[in-house]
Design goal:
Shape: globular
Order of helices and strands: EEHEEEEEE
Radius of gyration: 14 Å
Oligomer: single chain
Largest sheet: 8 strands, antiparallel, barrel
Number of helices: 1
CATH architecture: Beta Barrel
Strand content: over 45%
Number of domains: 1
CATH topology: Porin
Number of strands: 8
Strand order of the largest sheet: 1-2-3-4-5-6-7-8
Length: 128
């Protein structure tokens, strides 16, 4: 289990919550992701920092309707970010342009799963 000394100053704990969409007109505070990722001064994923500390970059997917999933934040050779929950690609979730997005409270970003894109709002960004 990582300790606080394993993290550099750029690491942040980020909470994403499901934004408004069909079936969730108010969004859903009980569905989202908790990320542990390094961010640069602009709030974007710090790719060089991620590369040197990949094993620390975690994702927890939560929902009141399903058991939590724990995985890693990974990057494909072309630069696309994704969430990897187990071996294989069947449960991977793709971040839409996550490398360009700013993880700043109030911003929105999209994550694809099972062929559909869903929008999430950055609800919290803090030091771990």
């Amino acid at each position: 289990m990582p300790t606080i000394k394993d993290f550099t100053p750029g690491f942040r704990s980020v909470r994403l919550l499901l934004a408004r969409e069909k079936g969730h007109p108010e969004g859903d505070r009980d569905a989202g992701y908790d990320l542990l990722i390094p961010l640069d001064d602009a709030g974007r994923i710090a790719a060089a920092e991620w590369k040197s500390r990949q094993a620390l970059c975690r994702v927890r997917k939560f929902s009141e309707r399903a058991e939590d999933l724990i995985g890693l934040v990974r990057r494909k050779p072309g630069g696309q970010w994704y969430f990897d929950y187990a071996e294989g690609e069947g449960d991977d979730e793709i971040g839409f342009r996550l490398g360009e997005e700013q993880f700043i409270v109030g911003e929105y970003l999209s994550i694809g799963r099972k062929g559909a894109m869903h929008t999430y709002r950055v609800a919290r960004v803090e030091r771990p």
